[in-house]
Design brief:
- It is an enzyme of class 2 (transferase).
- Its EC number is 2.1.1.44.
- This is L-histidine N(Alpha)-methyltransferase.
- The chain is about 40% helix and about 25% strand.
- By secondary structure, the chain is of the alpha/beta class.
- The protein has a seven-stranded mixed sheet with strand order 4-3-2-5-6-13-12, with helices on both faces. A four-stranded mixed sheet has the order 1-11-8-7. The chain has a two-stranded antiparallel ribbon with strand order 9-10.
- Strand 5, helix 8 and strand 6 form a beta-alpha-beta unit.
- The site of N,N-dimethyl-L-histidine has 12 residues, from helix 10 and strand 11.
Length: about 325
């Protein structure tokens, strides 16, 4: 029987605090985790369906064609385990792996973790229909808080999935700290499967974040609209422009919103933010990696690289690391 429980941690106070801290900072910045409200989830779905956004198809190619090999790595140790997915999204990719693990009659419990409560509700509604034998519990909130929660729920060995190039939304130093902190929560023999978008033709990368239909533009602007909706802001969206760039030397793809004029924006009754003409808000990083960068990251965090799974174009890698 499925155990289905939603754990919702809506944190408007934190959203307001982070928004004000980011907009009062010099230079201005936002945290891309706030992109994912109901509208943002929908726009992100459109991004994943875009021709230019090659990442989704690339990782889907790995998950749909190499599930057996992935399942073999996971089941090399026979004991029951918890499969914990950080940033599960709609699980369209991981469902292939879940199906394979169920077909192999392995004993496991699935904990999808996502910052979006809509995503967790959707998974709890749809996964039990698609995978009737799956034992699962959705956890809504920040990765680490929820991962800690999952480690408190059981002491089974852990297999952590962190796919979709979500690690790319941290800069290199943050990614190193993240991997170290993750390793601290895991024990000997636990496994991490982590997805990286690889460095490649710079134009191809830039097009994925500066698409011809302006979907990524809407994705970024939606965060301003979310501030208007939830924090009583008065951003005029037409006064901001999306700008993306990719630096092939560092592998950093960054997106910004540029203020098109000198303007003031109110947030709630008591906060006013001043924007100079051409001032930018740093919105998001999507860091790209070489294979050497990836192995160095594993080693610096204390993981042992076990195996790399590539898509047929070698655009993307799902790396398997062990504690
Ligand atoms: C979720 N994350 C891996 C996406 C990325 O590619 O950085 C988010 C995204 N932002 C714009 N397009 C996609």
């Amino acid at each position: 029987m499925n155990t289905v429980t939603t754990e919702t941690t809506t944190n408007k106070v934190q959203f307001l605090a982070d928004t004000l801290a980011g907009l009062q900072a010099e230079p201005k910045r936002m945290h891309s985790k706030y992109f994912y409200d109901e509208v943002g989830d929908h726009i992100f779905q459109q991004i994943m369906d875009m021709e230019e956004y090659y990442l989704t198809d690339a990782e889907m190619d790995i998950l749909s064609h190499q599930t057996e090999e992935l399942a073999n790595v996971i089941s090399a140790q026979e004991s029951p385990f918890d499969l914990i997915e950080l940033g599960a999204g709609d699980a369209t990719k991981s469902i292939h792996l879940l199906q394979e693990l169920l077909d192999k009659k392995l004993e496991f419990y699935y904990f999808p973790i996502d910052i979006s409560d809509h995503v967790i509700s959707y998974l709890e509604e749809t996964l039990p229909e698609k995978l009737p034998n799956l034992q699962m519990k959705g956890l809504n909130g920040d990765y680490f808080e929820m991962l800690k929660r999952a480690t408190e729920i059981s002491d089974r060995r852990k297999v952590v999935l962190f796919m979709g190039a979500n690690i790319g939304n941290m800069n290199v130093a943050e990614a190193a700290d993240f991997c170290k902190a993750l390793k601290e929560l895991l024990s000997n023999g636990d496994i991490l499967i982590i997805g990286f978008d690889l460095k490649k033709n710079p134009q191809q990368i830039l097009s994925a974040y500066n698409d011809s239909q302006g979907i990524t533009r809407s994705f970024n602007l939606n965060l301003l609209q979310r501030i208007n909706r939830e924090l009583d802001g008065d951003f005029q969206l037409e006064n901001f422009e999306h700008y993306a760039n990719y630096d092939p030397e560092t592998g950093a793809c960054k997106s910004y919103l540029i203020s098109l004029k000198d303007q003031h924006v109110n947030i709630g009754d008591s906060q006013t933010i001043h924007f100079k003409e051409n001032e930018y808000i740093f919105m998001e990083i999507s860091q790209k990696y070489s294979l050497q960068d990836i192995d160095e990251l594993a080693q610096s965090a204390g993981f042992k690289p076990v195996q790399n799974f590539f898509d047929e174009n070698q655009y993307f890698v799902d790396a398997v690391w062990k504690v």
